[in-house]
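User: Could you go from structure to sequence for me? I need the amino acid at each position, not a summary. Structure tokens:
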């Protein structure tokens, strides 16, 4: 069985920054199929309705629109985000939203094969970590299952902010632990639970979700091995295909924490697996096959893991060279 993925990376505009990657599960091999230019630092990608959107993580701050065609990707346009360093993007239908590390959220609308800014919300505040929390630093924007709201992780102010999707009106805010730095959110598809990866303390928090964007904190669990005392920053979260396990990538330690998902979405204490490179950023788990694909930014490679029956990822030995990879998503999945 074969799969195609998109990989976003840090690259100059005239250098390949978006990669099409193929996986052959029969041979457990991963390979680069094509490379595309046209966006500076397309660090995060999202696909919707035959278009690929890239968050251009640059000082200028842009969203870049590509049309997916038989030849690969055709650059169609860009739009200013209104702030620096868009570092995460979500898209559905003709709309896309970026989380801007400069401290804001931007909504874009696509009209045919052009894109323009439609709404913008600037945040305020700071946190106790003077080096990393001097100001708002929005790191991700994730849709609620209700289709009406967005959950925004503001690393700089230790805040989970809930926005109405259409006009980016702020609905409510929930504070996280001081200095935790919420980075990424992942909603459980079957239970009213959302998990949050906290970057600065490398913990994973569990929240109960309710109507009208309600979220209530239930638990926070350490993800690092007890005997590790070096530098660390939490990165990403993904489920196993059967939703029995939750995976967290942690940079610095450079491994994966594996949590069992228990009754009502509670998490076990994690097991730990060493990675196969340096600085694991985002990773992707195939939806219907036990494989995990990880982007190792500082090792300049993307690697293929097989998930054992006990949930633990095992490196297959297959990897491809990609300069400073950051994001991995499925091609053809909106």
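Assistant: Here is the amino acid at each position, in order:
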């Amino acid at each position: 069985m074969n799969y195609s993925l998109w990989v976003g990376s840090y690259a100059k505009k005239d250098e390949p920054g978006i990669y099409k990657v193929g996986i052959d599960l029969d041979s457990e091999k991963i390979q680069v199929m094509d490379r595309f230019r046209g966006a500076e630092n397309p660090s995060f990608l999202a696909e919707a309705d035959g278009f690929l959107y890239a968050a251009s993580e640059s000082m200028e701050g842009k969203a870049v629109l590509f049309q997916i065609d038989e030849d690969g990707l055709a650059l169609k346009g860009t739009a200013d985000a209104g702030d620096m360093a868009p570092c995460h993007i979500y898209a559905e239908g003709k709309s896309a939203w970026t989380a801007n590390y400069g401290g804001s959220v931007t909504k874009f609308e696509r009209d045919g094969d052009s894109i323009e800014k439609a709404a913008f919300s600037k945040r305020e505040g700071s946190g106790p970590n003077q080096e990393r929390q001097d100001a708002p630093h929005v790191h991700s924007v994730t849709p609620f299952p209700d289709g009406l709201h967005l959950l925004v992780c503001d690393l700089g102010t230790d805040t989970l902010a809930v926005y109405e999707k259409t006009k980016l009106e702020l609905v409510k805010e929930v504070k996280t632990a001081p200095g935790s730095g919420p980075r990424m959110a992942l909603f459980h598809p079957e239970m009213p639970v959302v998990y949050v990866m906290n970057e600065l303390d490398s913990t994973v928090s569990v929240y109960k979700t309710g109507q009208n964007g309600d979220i209530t904190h239930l638990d926070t669990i350490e993800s690092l091995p007890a005997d590790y005392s070096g530098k660390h920053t939490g990165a990403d979260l993904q489920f196993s295909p059967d939703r029995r396990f939750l995976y967290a990538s942690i940079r610095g330690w450079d491994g994966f924490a594996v949590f069992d998902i228990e009754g009502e979405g509670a998490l076990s204490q994690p097991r730990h697996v060493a990675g196969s490179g340096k600085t694991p950023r985002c990773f992707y788990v195939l939806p219907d096959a036990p494989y995990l694909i990880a982007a190792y930014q500082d090792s300049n490679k993307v690697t293929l893991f097989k998930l054992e029956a006990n949930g633990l990822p095992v490196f297959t030995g297959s990897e491809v060279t990609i300069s400073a990879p950051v994001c991995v998503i499925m091609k053809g999945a909106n």
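One structural detail worth keeping in mind: The chain has one domain: 85-327.
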